[in-house]
Amino acid sequence: MTRTEDGPRIAILGGGIGGLAAAAFLREQGFGSDVYEQAAALTEVGAGLVIAPNAARLLRRLGVLDRFVGRAVRMETGWEFRRWENGAVLSAENLAEACVRLYGEHTYAAHRADLLDALRSAVPAHSVHLGRRCVAVDFEGDQAVLRFEDGETVRPDILIGADGVHSRVRGAVVGPTHARESGICAFRALVPADKAPDFAKRRAQTLWIGPEHHLVHYPVSGEEYVNLVAFAPAGANSVESWTATATVEALLDEFAGWDPRLVELITAADTPGRWALLDREPLGHWNRGNATLLGDAAHPMFPFFAQGAAQAIEDGAVLALCLAAHPDNPIAALGRYEDLRRPRTARLQEMSHGRSRINHLPDGPEQQARDLEYSQADPLRANGWIYEYDPEVAVSASA
After folding, report:
1. Catalytic residue at 225?
2. 150 contacts 4 by C-beta, under 8 angstroms
3. Which architecture, in CATH terms, is 10-74+109-178+281-358?
4. Where are the domains of the chain?
5. Statement: the pTM of the whole predicted model exceeds 0.70
6. Residues 6+ positions from 215 with CB-CB distance below 8 Å
7. Dihedral, CA of residue 10, residue 7, residue 118 and residue 226, to nearest 10
8. In the chain, where does DSSP find H-type helix?
9. Which member of 218, 225, 387, 389 is catalytic?
10. pLDDT, tens digit (0-9, with 9 covering 90-100), for 157-190
């Protein structure tokens, strides 16, 4: 394992967005780390994501924002809500004018792989270990022990579980956690820009909402593709997997009768992925001994506020700052990190959960009241508590 001079041995299980963000911020604070990733290459399945100002500021702090924006798409319109049957605009954010003024950065949409590439550029290649499948996480007192498929055993000074929604570290830290079926499944697909209708190629994060369904689209990958994510009632064959697939016909069936422009967009999509959204309560704690969790391992959330990746990046920044503040007492540092992060991420988990019902209201008085509320809202300001967050300020304020 890597050890900086007089520094702890830090193991990060998982080489996704959260794991690489943690490694990058630890390096910024002078700590070495080893990232263990079971895949043979650092690739991101899935498709698009939104990087709001709270995450964009942290990419700038790491020195990787310029690399990221080379392929990301700067949003000019955000949270553009449209009615399902005719595309009537219920509300929209003017990001081009207000986002930087309010929060200091733009909002971007990107393919997940482009964000991963930017974060990896801030992590030394020698510290990322690919093809390392962890088969067990045990504790010897307060000491976390990683056991790998190749027979190696690692006993780090600090273990960071960044191993996703099916986290093995979480099982060792908090015991079995149970997920409920949400009744919702998600489809994801990419549409080549040369096949997409013009309205979908605008630099806008557009949400079409209707009974039991909603659909989101925005351009990604240097505007070469349109990312499409749709939500519908879960079928019996839906599983919680980024690699399960459906068919374009199945996706079209879900949105039959919706605005013809949306049907045109779906028709042009490649083979959609489909996965079930499982409902998880916020954890009561996520530390044990010298181990902690971050990202989806700690706080998996529905994607309805587009903050999953951003919260994982924030986790990495806060964790590194806490360790820098308590270099000789990692247990205290992990405790402070959890105390700072758990209330914020739990609030986002709960709000994202609530949005699933609001977006899917059947037509009627409640839907009409929602649409009126949307038309009068200023979501860019209302969500200021999300976008203005600064890890350095949060850590300093808790001192």
Report:
1. no
2. no
3. 3-Layer(bba) Sandwich (3.50)
4. 10-74+109-178+281-358
5. yes
6. 207, 208, 228, 229, 230, 231, 255, 258, 262
7. 30
8. 17-28, 53-62, 65-69, 95-103, 112-120, 168-174, 248-254, 260-267, 308-325, 330-359, 365-376, 379-382, 384-387, 391-397
9. 218
10. 999 999 998 899 999 999 988 888 889 999 999 9
